[in-house]
């Protein structure tokens, strides 16, 4: 139970830190609304005293009642009722205005908290180094950025509701003490007993919340895998297997949520029953033992009835808050993980990087450690001259991808140094260097948008002529002309409405539009036939004589047009052949 309270305290502290100076304002509105309601409830005593025809109230309440009745200038009972009724109605109207402001302030806090969590996590993702980002599951990020952060918002809402309920309870119990201290103590004791009885439901809510988060994560992961390999899934008759996995997850989620609802209902019914018991005991004790008069007794019963609402709201809010705590823990864990992996600020200092400059690797090493073992590059020394066509070959796992990632400035070397035109490629120059680089992978990503939008993504200022020029250079002009709406044709999710070769041609055109100094093709033409690939590379060499092109490929024909061929093996450069 202590661990549960620690988690809740961490979440509440995080929420309050976000709220800042807005929290006291919202708290003041909550307290003011409760205070006005409390004064309104006290106004019931003189009303009831007038209706019952007596002044049976004792103590402070009795004095207030008698003073108020003495101030009323009317002698008729209807006239006497009019004044306290008017005051009561005015207080309730004021309370309504305060509650409107209160709810708007609290809604602004909870909605803003969700937006801030998403924005903070997005900033962490953008600021993290590529080595960390590349190893984080996309399903995990999508799950946390959507459902889990939304659950954090729900937790904030329930925490706010619970806070409001606490204030209301305090005010109602204080009213009960004003009306009858002995009955107030009795009520408080019975409420504490109820809290102890319902405490196990909090632990069960935490377990249910963890299970729900795990199942939703599994659903997003499996759906992503299925959609990512949709063609293979259908060609291998795996769609029914996917359906079975989803059915299993949904069945488990259904059971967890039904059990959670059952526990919530039991707890709510137990609280309702206890509230009725408290009211009954208070009535018996107040009338039979303490001998309270009708006006005090009726006002007290009204207060006790009002206690049931905030008590129920507090119980429901606490359970739902605890249920959502696993989501906050997961979001916070990723936030800390990304914060620890943040790269230094990339701000260019000194003169701009030289365009068309050589890139030098000096004993560069970078190793990835994963469950599959250690891989990467080590002791890599070479110079890539501007305008060269450089091929990179080697078996899978030889270090080719790590090499081009380092070349693109995606992360700094762990050992050795990389320089561009004599300037070190580090945090001060990496961002400026990447502005001169274009990268195309084997499975290029196209947005579910038009051809035009996909091309302009890399060069927003490109003209219509620029678009068609890049398409012609990459052999994609005829492809676009065949599409139903030309440049304004939507290519589908991940470019699924065009063939693999067409998708690679469009990605090449998008890269060329950047007018880069360095073009990296990582198996980027593997789906294009050999002759077309040779024609594209020939046109690139002729149209962009100063552009350096680095081609990673397994196919020997893809490396044939290269002036230089680097061969990697086990992360080391084992051959460097020119000509």
Question: In words, what does this structure look like?
Answer:
The protein is α/β, with parallel strands linked by helices and 579 residues long. The chain contains 19 helices and ten strands. The protein folds into two domains: 2-340, Up-down Bundle (ABC transporter transmembrane region fold); 359-578, Rossmann fold. The chain has a six-stranded mixed beta sheet with strand order 6-7-8-3-9-10, sandwiched between helices. Strands 2-1-4-5 form a four-stranded antiparallel beta sheet, with helices on one face. Strand 7 (518-522), helix 18 and strand 8 form a beta-alpha-beta unit. 65% of the residues lie in helices and 11% in strands.
CATH domain topology of the largest domain: ABC transporter transmembrane region fold
Rounded mean pLDDT score:
81
Helical proportion, percent range? 55-70%
- The ordered H/E elements are HHHHHHHHHHHEEEHEEHEHHHHEHEHEE
Strand order of the largest sheet: 6-7-8-3-9-10
CATH superfamily of the largest domain: ABC transporter type 1, transmembrane domain
Task: Count the DSSP helices.
Answer: 19
- What would you say the CATH architecture of the largest domain is? Up-down Bundle
Q: What is the percentage of strand-forming residues?
A: 5-15%
């Amino acid at each position: 139970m202590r661990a549960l309270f620690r988690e809740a305290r961490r979440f509440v502290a995080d929420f309050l830190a976000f709220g800042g100076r807005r929290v006291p304002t919202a708290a003041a509105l909550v307290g003011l609304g409760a205070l006005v309601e409390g004064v309104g409830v006290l106004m019931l005593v003189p009303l009831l005293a007038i209706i019952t025809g007596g002044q049976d109230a004792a103590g402070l309440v009795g004095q207030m009642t008698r003073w108020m009745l003495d101030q009323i200038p009317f002698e008729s009972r209807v006239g006497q009722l009019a004044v306290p009724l008017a005051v009561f109605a005015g207080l309730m109207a004021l309370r309504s205005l305060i509650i409107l402001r209160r709810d708007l302030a609290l809604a602004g806090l909870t909605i803003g908290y969700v937006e801030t969590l998403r924005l903070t996590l997005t900033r962490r993702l953008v600021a993290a180094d590529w080595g960390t980002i590349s190893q984080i599951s996309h399903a995990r990020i999508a799950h946390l950025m959507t459902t889990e952060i939304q659950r954090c918002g729900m937790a904030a809402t329930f925490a706010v509701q619970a806070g409001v309920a606490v204030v209301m309870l305090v005010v109602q119990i204080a009213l009960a003490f004003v009306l009858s201290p002995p009955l107030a103590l009795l009520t408080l004791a019975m409420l504490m007993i109820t809290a102890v009885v319902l405490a196990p439901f909090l632990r069960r809510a935490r377990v249910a919340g963890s299970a729900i988060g795990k199942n939703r994560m599994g659903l997003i992961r499996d759906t992503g895998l299925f959609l990512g390999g949709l063609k293979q899934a259908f060609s291998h008759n795996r769609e029914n297997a996917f359906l079975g996995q989803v059915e299993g997850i949904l069945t488990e989620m259904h059971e967890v949520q039904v059990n959670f609802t059952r526990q919530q209902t039991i707890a709510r019914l137990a609280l309702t029953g206890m509230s009725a018991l408290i009211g009954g005991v208070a009535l018996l004790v107040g009338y039979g033992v303490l001998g309270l008069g009708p006006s005090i007794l009726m006002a007290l019963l009204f207060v006790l009835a009002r206690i049931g609402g905030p008590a129920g709201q507090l119980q429901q809010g606490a359970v739902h808050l605890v249920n959502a705590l696993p989501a906050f823990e997961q979001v916070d864990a990723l936030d800390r993980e990304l914060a620890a992996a943040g790269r230094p600020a990339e701000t260019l200092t000194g003169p701009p990087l030289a365009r068309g400059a050589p890139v030098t690797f000096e004993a560069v090493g970078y190793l990835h450690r994963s469950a599959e073992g250690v891989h990467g590059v080590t002791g890599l020394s070479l110079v890539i001259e501007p305008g060269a066509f450089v091929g990179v070959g080697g078996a899978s796992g030889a270090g080719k991808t790590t090499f081009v990632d380092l070349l693109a400035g995606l992360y700094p070397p762990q050992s050795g140094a990389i320089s561009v035109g004599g300037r070190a490629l580090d945090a001060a120059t990496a961002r400026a260097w990447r502005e001169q680089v274009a990268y195309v992978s084997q499975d290029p990503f196209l947005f579910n948008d038009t051809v035009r939008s996909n091309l302009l993504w890399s060069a927003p200022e490109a003209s219509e002529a620029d678009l068609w020029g890049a398409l012609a250079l990459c052999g994609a002009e005829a492809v676009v002309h065949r599409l139903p709406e030309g440049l304004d044709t939507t290519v589908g999710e991940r470019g699924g409405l065009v063939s693999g070769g067409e998708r690679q041609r469009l990605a090449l055109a998008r890269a060329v539009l950047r007018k880069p100094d360095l073009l990296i093709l990582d198996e980027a033409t593997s789906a294009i036939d050999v002759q077309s690939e040779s024609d594209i590379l020939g046109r690139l060499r002729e149209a962009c004589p100063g552009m350096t092109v680095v081609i990673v490929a397994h196919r020997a024909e893809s490396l044939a047009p290269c002036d230089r061929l680097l061969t990697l093996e086990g992360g080391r450069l084992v051959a460097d052949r020119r000509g």
